[in-house]
């Protein structure tokens, strides 16, 4: 019906007008993974997936048994496959001239049949090799996507770091491993993987980073040579007077370098290899004035300097600083391992959690850095948005959500109701799912006069949501994403 079509177009235009092209696939943030426990043995294996990333290294896929394994990873911007069926390992790499860490979507197809292994990239680059030895069967007990979930064999296999970027349609022997990211019991477990392709993977070094919760942090590669090192950033603390970690790195023993906000003041802490602590405290109060503050930390062989705005604080070290960081350089907060180290060192803000606010203009030893160089991120946003994120485990009651009323001049309206369309907000917790139901959309039409049934209202998908996806069914193992231009009947 004409009226139904008009209603559908108006509603969907308002509902998903913020749609972006980055919605396809799922996002891995450097420490995420999908783990499927399965027992399979076959002389024929197939793997297809799409990925996009700016990272140069990361694990894409691993199928592993007690002896056999199939590993696909990104190394120095190129794909590498390693396969062992029990008679020796084969290694296959993509073409040298094909650089894949360029944030474009790339498609990989890998097949194993008896002794033959073939890999194609983007449908054109083809590589193949014969397997050594008599064994032709791949026997596995576990499958991993994006990371290894603490797998014991990961070190002996020489597996690269966790993947940071987007994966789409990971089909292993025709089973889609990325479908249905809700909570699972039994054979499939999912950690730090969210629907949609996150905008943070497209951030630049100039973009500010917003730390959105007490667990937020950005992990960069280890800080090289901090004996003569320098860290600099601009900082905008939140309006609330919260303590929080700005910077943390350690040598995994006694030594560490940290910078935190404590009681509204920036405090730098250096602990040498013998456990001797040196603290510098700025007198500048940084909370509550809604201003950006330039912060600099300089580490020299025999001294440390902290500068906040125009204020400079300096301290001499009793012994020459010998510090070789082994862990990541953490900005804005702490991961679980670093939290324990910080607590043992007496770092006051370790219990309080992450820095609340924004960082920008981040420089290490004079060089720009930021989200494009991150190894792991957690609960952060691109740009200076510091409102808290929803707890992925929380549930939201949408029955009390406010109505959004849309006035219109269309002639057909229910008596006594001057609004053609009323919407109730549908809120979905991060990492969760919620049904879009007729109660969220109230169409104020006299269907009887128009000789219409509500099921005749057809809704057309004009574009995908900024985050997540629209599905026909919300059960974990069924339902397909709604494609653009597809029409559906709500509640039918």
UniProtKB/TrEMBL annotation:
Keywords: Signal. The keyword Transmembrane helix does not apply. Residues 1-23 form the signal peptide. Residues 25-197, 207-384 form the Laminin G domain. Pfam families: Laminin_G_2. It comes from the Eukaryota. PROSITE patterns: LAM_G_DOMAIN. This is Laminin G domain-containing protein. It comes from Tetraodon nigroviridis.
